[in-house]
Design a protein that fits this description.
This is dTDP-4-amino-4,6-dideoxygalactose transaminase. Keywords: Pyridoxal phosphate. InterPro entries: DegT/StrS_aminotransferase (IPR000653), PyrdxlP-dep_Trfase (IPR015424), PyrdxlP-dep_Trfase_major (IPR015421). The protein is of the alpha/beta class. The protein has 2 domains: 226 residues, 3-Layer(aba) Sandwich (Aspartate Aminotransferase, domain 2), CATH 3.40.640.10; 133 residues, Aspartate Aminotransferase, domain 1. It is built from 12 helices and 15 strands. Helix 2 runs parallel beside helix 7, helix 3 crosses helix 4 and helix 3 packs across helix 6. The longest helix has 19 residues. The C terminus is likely disordered. The site of pyridoxal-5'-phosphate has 14 residues, from helix 3 and helix 4.
Length: 386
């Protein structure tokens, strides 16, 4: 029986690098509420990511929930149906109405050309997602927001470390949020952050994530408890020492897939533009309508070999029961998103995915495409597995 290959596997540094931090926590008996490791991780991450201010959170969903509160967003928010459900759920939790816009077929991100027609007097913000870590068309989105007086909050859960023209993509819009969930490029088991442009906004967000406490006896806002604890923050500090190596491994795996898939007609890959330093957070492939088998049959064929790909993002958020009554969620309103959701498949990618395991994935794809491995020129010319 072949061992399981999952779509992702968490980045875990050697345990012995983490133990001294735990000993320190036991020694200090300081477990949460903005301890030393929390402060250290905030500055280390701000420096690593190239952003001015960053607020740590216990997870990405609470970061997004709080970002919407911090900017006092109300009414309707234009967003993408092609994302993880948390993107829209945080709107409902804030009593806001999601308005779904179709996506761009090249980036899978919200299509700026579809935004303006959805603006109403109730619209106050745009909530785009840098899907798979590939940047949105941030310039077009910002010019629409400026013209109509809207805020922009980026769900950048996939975009850790992504840069465009040498600058962090996380500096775009009014606020951006990150997720440090176990499945993400950089993890703190669970965790997240809001990236914000100035110290005043950081202070407001820091109140909001700690019940609204400004000091021992003053509560300035109806805040929530969304603080990152010291164990999570310490783990983040250890993890940060390994992130560059992990990103390089992801890039190498991405390239090996691209080389292998070049010889498989009907499976197209995604790439970031040349001015983008991408993080290769996912490896999505689009199954062409004339590929010998359907996306779901390919998913099943992989599963039969204990390879667990994921259909990110299917079903569309707009099709779930709490959204499908919305006018913007009606089938046919988002033809591009509907088409891509039906044909997308994310293949396993994580830093320590071995060549052998990657070859197992590619072998299933080749078989589905009716290409025999023996006739694969890539295998013979390079002498190794892909
Ligand atoms: C992972 C993810 C989230 C949620 O982050 P958590 O840290 O799991 O709460 C939000 N949006 C997107 C696009 C995600 O992929």
């Amino acid at each position: 029986m072949n061992k399981n290959i999952f779509v992702t596997s968490p980045l875990l540094p050697p345990l012995e690098e983490f133990t001294p931090y735990l000993e320190k926590i036991w020694e200090n008996r300081y477990l949460t509420n903005g301890g030393t490791f929390h402060q250290q991780l905030e500055s280390a991450l701000a420096e690593y990511l190239g952003v001015s201010h960053l607020c740590l959170f216990s997870n990405g969903t609470l970061a997004l929930l709080t970002a919407l509160q911090a900017l006092r967003i109300s009414g309707e928010v234009i967003t993408t149906p092609y994302s993880f459900v948390a993107t829209s759920h945080t709107l409902l939790w804030n009593g806001l109405t999601p308005v779904f816009a179709d996506i761009d077929p090249i980036t899978c991100n919200i299509d700026p050309a579809k935004i303006e027609a959805l603006i109403t007097p109730q619209t106050t913000a745009i909530l785009p997602v840098h899907c798979y870590g590939i940047p949105c068309n941030v310039d077009k989105i910002q010019s629409i927001a400026d013209a109509w007086g809207l805020k922009v909050i980026y769900d950048a859960a996939h975009a850790f470390g992504v840069k465009k023209d040498g600058e962090s993509i996380l500096r775009c819009g009014d606020l951006s949020i990150l997720s440090f969930h176990a499945t993400k490029v950089f993890n703190t088991f669970e965790g997240g952050a809001i990236i914000c442009p100035d110290a005043r906004m950081k202070a407001r967000i820091d109140y909001l994530k700690n019940f609204g406490f400004a000091d021992e006896t003053t509560v300035v806002a109806p805040g929530i408890n969304a603080k990152m604890n010291e164990v999570q923050a310490a783990f983040g500090l250890v993890q940060l020492n390994h992130i560059d190596a992990a990103l390089a491994q992801r890039a190498a795996i991405h390239q090996r897939y691209c080389d292998a898939l070049e010889t498989i007609p009907g499976l197209s890959v995604f790439n970031a533009p040349a001015n983008v330093e991408w993080n290769h957070a996912y490896f999505p492939v689009l199954v062409a309508p004339d590929f010998p088998v359907s996306r779901d049959a390919l998913y099943d064929a992989l599963k039969a070999e204990n390879i667990y790909s994921r259909r990110y993002f299917y079903p569309l958020i707009s099709s779930f029961s709490m959204y499908r009554h919305l006018p913007s969620a009606q089938p046919g309103r988002m033809p591009v998103a509907e088409d891509i959701a039906a044909r997308i498949l994310c293949l396993p990618i994580y830093p320590d995915l071995t060549h052998e395991d990657q070859y197992r994935v590619v072998a299933v794809l080749r078989q589905a495409a009716h290409i025999s491995c023996a006739s694969d020129p890539a295998v013979h010319s390079t002498g190794h597995t892909l």
